[in-house]
Amino acid sequence: MLTEDQLKVLLLDLESDRIERTESVSNTEKFSQAICAFANDLPNHRQPGYLLVGVKDNGSLSGLTVTDELLKNLGGIRSDGNILPQPMLNIARYSFENGEIAVVEVFPSDLPPVRYKGRVHIRVGPRKAFANEQEERLLSERRVALARNFDARPCTEATLDEVALGQFDAYRREVIDPETIAANHRPIEQQLASLRLYDPERSCPTHAGILLFGKNLRFFCQGHMFSTSNCQALI
């Protein structure tokens, strides 16, 4: 976590894309969007992003008193189910003469794209935005390079024909917001890749794609027994 001296330096950097300042203590929507964007780390800094609660846009303190309830609410964003995959966070309180600051340190995800309520949030300079198709594809390709888990790795023996696309479409409508789906004109391979179900570099489904929607699961996962309900946690 930051030292006080490091935090003071961040307060003075008004143009950084790794910092989000806010005076609000109750705007969970804004907090969650910022955390999602930092977890995606589109500029590929591979360094944490920081949500600073109790700081004005000009970098001065708002005079906030950080309560335990505020810290608990910030910590609850990690596991409330709206940001997936779950982000890695640190939360701390800092006290200065002019007020206190609640700092949320957000680490870049190894499994991007990260979504908040089905949408991929990113940082474009000092502001937040929704990822377009090209940016989302870049995040999906980066996930392949960073992937460490079995489910995120390519199942090179399988092809797209092994995936039950009708079942995937029904699942997609449950996890992606309708506006994104309506604006989506990407090939099915890229749609699968955005949910970590397809490896665009190897042109094959990932193990998660086969476990969830494979037509012949036992062939590709011999010696293992899986159910769709048990596999939902992989995504």
Characterise the protein shown here.
The model is unreliable at 225-235 (pLDDT under 50). The protein has a four-stranded mixed beta sheet with strand order 1-2-5-4. The protein has ten helices and ten strands. It folds into two domains: 4-107, 2-Layer Sandwich (Methyltransferase, Cobalt-precorrin-4 Transmethylase, Domain 2); 133-234, no CATH class. With 235 residues, the protein is of the alpha+beta class. The longest helix is centred in the middle third of the chain and has 14 residues, at 133-146. 35% of the residues lie in helices and 19% in strands. It has helices at 4-12, 28-40, 68-76, 133-146, 165-175, 178-182, 188-194, 207-213, 217-220, 228-231, and strands at residues 19-22, 49-53, 83-84, 88-96, 99-107, 115-116, 119-124, 127-130, 198-199, 204-205.
Strand content bin: 15-25%
Instruction: Return the average pLDDT rounded to an integer.
Output: 87
CATH superfamily of the largest domain: Schlafen, AAA domain
Q: Output the helix-strand order.
A: HEHEHEEEEEEHHHHEEHHH
Assembly of the depicted chains: single chain
Count every helix, treating DSSP H or I runs of 4 or more residues as helices.
10
> What can be said about the biggest beta sheet?
4 strands, mixed
CATH topology of the largest domain: Methyltransferase, Cobalt-precorrin-4 Transmethylase, Domain 2
Helix content: 25-40%
| Number of discrete domains | 2
Overall spatial form:
elongated
Backbone CA Rg = 20 Å
**Which architecture name of the largest domain does CATH use?**
2-Layer Sandwich
Overall SS class: alpha+beta
